[in-house]
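User: Second chain of the day. Same drill as before.
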Amino acid sequence: MTAGSRGDVAPFTGLGHGLVRAGHEVTLVTHGCFAGLVPGSGVGFHPLPVDPRAELESGPGRRLHRSATGAGKVVGLAGLARSLAGRLTDGMIAAASGADVLLLSGSLGPLGYAVAEGLGLPSMGVHLQPLEPTGEFAPPVAAAGSWGSAVNRAAGYGVNLAVERVFARTVRELRKELGLPPVGTVAARRARERRAWPVHHGFSPLVVPRPRDWRRGLDVSGYWWPYASEDARLPSALEDFLDAGPAPVFVGLGSATVPDPGRLSGEIVRALRAAGLRGVIQRGWGGLHATGEDMFTVDEVPHSLLFPRMAAVVHHAGAGTTAAGLRAGIPAVPVPVQFDEGFWAARLVALGVAPGTLSPRRLRAERLAAALVRVTTDPSYRRNARSLAEHLRTEEGVARVAEALTRLEHPGRS
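Assistant: Same format as last time:
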């Protein structure tokens, strides 16, 4: 069960496909607009209401992408999630009624845990970000660095309790509907910790090592790559563009939105041309676009097919896009917009695959051009990216979850 943007859903198609191959029957439970991600994977699909992209076009959604600060976007997202949570629960209960185990993303954790408890089902977290408090870094949705061990941990608990409170009213109503006694947000979280509720994290320990102060039951599994069928192909017009010249640079902001996509698109095109580079611009939810023989605008295409043919990738540093760039072994220029993107951008810099981060609101062609020249001419960035990609290919992120799932279904089995 997951909710959010495409990046909050796509990795679970790969996890589900891997679990199907391991002998499980798997259903992906998420917004109906993402049904097209599973055909051919062997994964079933149960639609939930709410189209996240349409919600961004609503009044609250427009206020969210006009927010000038990361804190403002977090507050806006919390309000939007609070207003939508109640519309998801009936579909979640219906999907879970035919299940043996629930795997819950971080975006639906409090709701999904209540559903599992009410139906007497074992459950496990499958998170794409490190959401648990730690002294080793600040909460990813709040900062990209560290405020010191004690403050990091306190802030982590604060953020998690804030998330619990976003869903508190819906969870209270859900528990009543399922015949469960009422429980406060703090008590609910402590109960999961006492039970060492298992959570597997879908990123590599080479990118984010497992924090030494995490409790028992929290594991870093490795990436779950989005499913792509063996006959998947890039559009023929894009193939022609790629073949017509040197490797271009990908530029995309995924589901992130910006107040003035026209201005930002213009700065991006000027930067690419100043650096002497061709560009593949992904329209995304922000509406980027470019014209000219040296530019090609695309909608959704498999990053696993496109990124290996790029000279570099300029992106918003969402968890999924960050992973796709690392998998392809391609250097990056991160332009974090919101939420946990600053955290992943800082990881790219620390790993030596990116020269630094740029702010989308203050992005100017000169700064982006300088970063592009640096990342495409200094061989260390590509060398570091390729080395990391080789190590990532040896990890078995899905297998770790499959092993844990077997233990969850058969508690007495070692």
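The first strand starts at residue 27 and ends at 31.

User: Great, on to the next one.
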